[in-house]
């Protein structure tokens, strides 16, 4: 039995009439279904943890189209890798996971999204799973084709979704304690809004980035893992650099960009703090750190002591070598992924990051464009 037939059977057994409060928070609308069924247009999203909460962020339109073409190619998705975000992330299509290319970052879930519901405590929409979205789409197709609405479905989490008409679809959470008695959950409480298609939800979707890269900038951070007053990481701050640069292309060089006379500037972070503190130095510091004023001492060990490390003969050369080797690694990987790149390369350093570059100014590049380290102490 197909998923549509099984849900039809469930619908025939359930009460098709909505609860008295089903439309309480919605305006009355035209009930005319009108028209033929048109398949929903999918858009690809990825999940990111922001302030310990999941946030679903849309890929830009070009990346989403590229992912959809790979999905519709008819080939096995397992093992297929699609570069996104200007080549800084790879999406493993079969795994539905997104991996950073140039730096360490937790992999994030990727989803082909067609149906959405509004979250609990904010106005952002959350996509349903791909499998349940397909069930919703099949039920919607039958409702439009047969002009029979007030369809009721139950999600895998025993949540209730009711399709009253094409413009009014709601989502109810399961009633607490209903599972204990094995009873069918009923719709109660304030309903959530359900939307079909990304064009019906409020979300910013960017067009994408120019493929051509004219210049590469390495950004070396200063002391500590936090790079600004908002305690953001080097990756987040460099993302802002890149966004400002792309906005300047639109506001100041739009005509040149449309005529493909110029490309864009790529900014890549150089992280030396994590390799330094992974050498076991944190364990040694912990042994001699007093337990009082825990947060302040942790901040001092993780941030201010980087200055003393740099001024010590034991760790200074390690830090400088780490910066050079990290730039070599990123630059080699960048050329592999951008074999036609013929632009210039610059280094931007903030605070102690600039001091390390200045201290290692006798570093030079060889004929292959690699950064070599010479004795600076």
TrEMBL record:
<feature type="region of interest" description="Disordered">
    <location>
        <begin position="1"/>
        <end position="24"/>
    </location>
</feature>
<feature type="domain" description="WWE">
    <location>
        <begin position="30"/>
        <end position="112"/>
    </location>
</feature>
<dbReference type="InterPro" id="IPR004170">
    <property type="entry name" value="WWE_dom"/>
</dbReference>
<dbReference type="InterPro" id="IPR058055">
    <property type="entry name" value="PA-PLA1"/>
</dbReference>
<feature type="compositionally biased region" description="Polar residues">
    <location>
        <begin position="1"/>
        <end position="11"/>
    </location>
</feature>
<dbReference type="Pfam" id="PF23464">
    <property type="entry name" value="WWE_3"/>
</dbReference>
<dbReference type="Pfam" id="PF02825">
    <property type="entry name" value="WWE"/>
</dbReference>
<feature type="compositionally biased region" description="Low complexity">
    <location>
        <begin position="12"/>
        <end position="24"/>
    </location>
</feature>
<dbReference type="InterPro" id="IPR057825">
    <property type="entry name" value="WWE_SEC23-DDH2"/>
</dbReference>
<protein>
    <submittedName>
        <fullName>Phospholipase DDHD2 isoform X2</fullName>
    </submittedName>
</protein>
């Amino acid at each position: 039995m197909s998923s549509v037939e099984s849900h039809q059977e469930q619908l025939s057994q359930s009460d098709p009439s909505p609860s008295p409060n089903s439309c309480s928070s919605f305006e009355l609308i035209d009930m005319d279904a009108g028209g033929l069924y048109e398949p929903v247009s999918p858009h690809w999203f990825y999940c990111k943890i922001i302030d310990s909460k999941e946030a679903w962020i849309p890929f830009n339109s070009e990346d989403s189209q590229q992912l959809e073409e790979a999905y519709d190619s008819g080939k096995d998705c397992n093992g297929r890798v699609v570069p996104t975000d200007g080549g800084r992330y790879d999406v493993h299509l079969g795994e539905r996971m997104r991996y950073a290319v140039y730096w360490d970052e937790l992999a994030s879930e990727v989803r082909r999204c067609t149906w959405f519901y509004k979250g609990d405590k904010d106005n952002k929409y959350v996509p349903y799973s791909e499998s349940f979205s397909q069930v919703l789409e099949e039920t919607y197709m039958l409702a439009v084709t047969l002009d029979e609405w007030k369809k009721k479905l139950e999600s895998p989490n025993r949540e209730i979704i009711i399709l009253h008409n094409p413009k009014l679809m709601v989502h109810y959470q399961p009633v607490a304690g209903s599972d204990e008695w094995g009873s069918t959950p009923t719709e109660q409480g304030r309903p959530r809004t359900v939307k079909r298609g990304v064009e019906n939800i409020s979300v910013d979707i960017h067009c994408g980035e120019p493929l051509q890269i004219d210049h590469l900038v390495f950004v070396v951070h200063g002391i500590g893992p936090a790079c600004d007053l908002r305690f953001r990481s080097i990756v987040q701050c460099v993302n802002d650099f890149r966004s400002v640069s792309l906005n300047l292309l639109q506001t100041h060089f739009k005509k040149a960009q449309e005529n493909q006379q110029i490309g864009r500037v790529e900014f890549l972070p150089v992280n030396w703090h994590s390799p330094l503190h992974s050498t076991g130095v944190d364990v040694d510091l912990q042994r001699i750190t007093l337990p009082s004023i825990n947060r302040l001492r942790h901040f001092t060990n993780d941030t201010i002591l980087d200055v003393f490390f740099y001024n010590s003969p034991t760790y200074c050369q390690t830090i400088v070598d780490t910066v050079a080797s990290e730039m070599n690694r990123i630059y080699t990987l960048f050329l592999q992924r951008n074999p036609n790149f013929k632009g210039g390369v610059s280094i931007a350093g903030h605070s102690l990051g600039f001091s390390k570059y200045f201290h290692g100014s006798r570093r030079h590049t060889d004929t292959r464009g690699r950064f070599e380290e010479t004795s600076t102490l």
